[in-house]
Amino acid sequence: xxxxxxxxxxxxxxxxxxxxxxxxxxxxxxxxxxxxxxxxxxxxxxxxxxxxxxxxxxxxxxxxxxxxxxxxxxxxxxxxxxxxxxxxxxxxxxxxxxxxxxxxxxxxxxxxxxxxxxxxxxxxxxxxxxxxx
Amino acid sequence: xxxxxxxxxxxxxxxxxxxxxxxxxxxxxxxxxxxxxxxxxxxxxxxxxxxxxxxxxxxxxxxxxxxxxxxxxxxxxxxxxxxxxxxxxxxxxxxxxxxxxxxxxxxxxxxxxxxxxxxxxxxxxxxxxxxxxxxxxxxxxxxxxxxxxxxxxxxxxxxxxxxxxxxxxxxxxxxxxxxxxxxxxxxxxxxxxxxxxxxxxxxxxxxxxxxxxxxxxxxxxxxxxxxxxxxxxxxxxxxxxxxxxxxxxxxxxxxxxxxxxxxxxxxxxxxxxxxxxxxxxxxxxxxxxxxxxxxxxxxxxxxxxxxxxxxxxxxxxxxxxxxxxxxxxxxxxxxxxxxxxxxxxxxxxxxxxxxxxxxxxxxxxxxxxxxxxxxxxxxxxxxxxxxxxxxxxxxxxxxxxxxxxx
Amino acid sequence: xxxxxxxxxxxxxxxxxxxxxxxxxxxxxxxxxxxxxxxxxxxxxxxxxxxxxxxxxxxxxxxxxxxxxxxxxxxxxxxxxxxxxxxxxxxxxxxxxxxxxxxxxxxxxxxxxxxxxxxxxxxxxxxxxxxxxxxxxxxxxxxxxxxx
Lengths: 133, 406, 148
Description:
The complex is a heterotrimer.
Chain A: H1 11-15, E1 19-21, E2 27-30, E3 33-39, E4 42-51, H2 53-60, H3 62-75, E5 83-86, E6 90-94, E7 97-100, H4 111-119
Parallel strand pairs in A: 1-7
Antiparallel strand pairs in A: 1-2, 3-4, 4-5, 6-7
Chain B: H1 3-20, H2 23-36, H3 41-65, H4 69-77, H5 79-112, H6 120-133, H7 136-147, H8 151-159, H9 164-170, H10 180-194, H11 197-209, H12 217-245, H13 256-259, H14 271-302, H15 316-334, H16 339-364, H17 368-371, H18 378-405
Chain C: H1 8-26, H2 30-56, H3 62-85, H4 90-115, H5 119-146
Helix pairs in contact in C: 2-3, 2-4, 2-5, 3-4, 4-5
């Protein structure tokens, strides 16, 4: 699929903390972190994006990251609080979101959503809402 | 203006009424009228002007950028900078939601005679069910239409023919003749009740739910001004009624039972029920808005899928958030926290945290890259700076005053 | 990206204000404090009066009278407690305590009368409360004259 990326990117302003969506424009999360690859004699480059509670916790401090990790171990649906998105998967960057060339159901981003859907929502009666026109 | 926009205008106005006149407005208006008659009308007027501008800005922002505030603030300022406003916003959502649920429970207590705490869980279930099953526009329309019952206060005030000289004099700030600590405490509470952060944060998410775009900027001005103004008129009605009915008898509003007497004189048969139903519906609308506001803020901060029009299977974490919020807030009432005290506490904290949650918003409104020609002009910015000054003053005095005047 | 604004300034301001206000209120005399405590008592007596009147006019249900009387009696008992603990001279606080006891009794009488559907009895309790309100107002006036 053809990629739509700007020529120049300010990482902090245009990438970090941006809404991330999948191929179908379903919201997946936000860009919680960026990992750069450092190369000898060459400028660093963006290796991958990171999403997840551990990533976010680390931005607040190493101790907070430890608490969050301990909390996750207790009740976590997935073992790692970190989802790595290789740069190749980034398809489009626009002012309000980053689009990835993935389907959210195939990524760890929806682990909690799936768990809640299967274990909680499935047991609660409801009609179908759907969009109103 | 085409039909759809006209409908938005009408319904948007009605929605503002449900959101503006909530348990905080009822409590502080009744107290203000009972203790100081018309003297505190200036606080209501000042708060109304500021909130009209804030709501207009919020709607304009959402219409132009197609983003709600929490979403945009995290994106523009980063998670670390958003963390403190986010935490305080969550706190005031929770406390105010508790107060609104308390208001609904009290209304049901008036109508049935059953204890307030008895109603906590049934009311929580009702609010939850409303959110679980309804779409956003269904919620908007129903609470807005039902909210019209609060006009009872305006009708009552009009029938009393209050002395217009005193009413107008009250619109100008004046110093109290007695109990200064209490006067300023109620003034702060009134301002906190009117300039509720949840209102303009929620409004932006609501605009996104209603799929506003740049063409709605004009309509938004009307909705903000007339909607908030309308809600304000109802609060004026409440202050006037309290001034005419309670003040001469020396009845202060230290408890909601005293406020419940307000309409029983001018409407001898229906007055009691009218007060209860008005309070119940206003608080129900506000409770629904607050639970949604909590869910919007959490979901947008962490990038989850969100939207009242989505089936819960598609935004499970969003639904979990409002479920937990409603339950936790209801527990406050279940365990016997006094509804009026909770209301006054949440109003004081609303006032205290206003600078933290208003500042990022105000910075955004001047971002020309985001808003282009729709960024704040000098009028909006002047009001903005005034709001920030008022917010900081409120923040500095509200907590100490709570200990002195409460 | 901006970092969070410093919270030092408003916090300091709040603490300074709190300190000065606490100092101001700490310098209230016991007589003034008792006067402050009597304010809500007058308000609750007035509330009971209006509640009785309104029930007689068929404007409020009996359950409301019951709830309001319960709340009022609790609050009046609280004021009586404060009076009991206050260091003011006995001739100042005893009248207040007596008034609170009588007001609570009037409230209880009101509730009984409403339960029995006895309108004349309700009217009598309302009058009694009016008299008590007058006595309380006289007490307050006397106290205000006493305190500078």
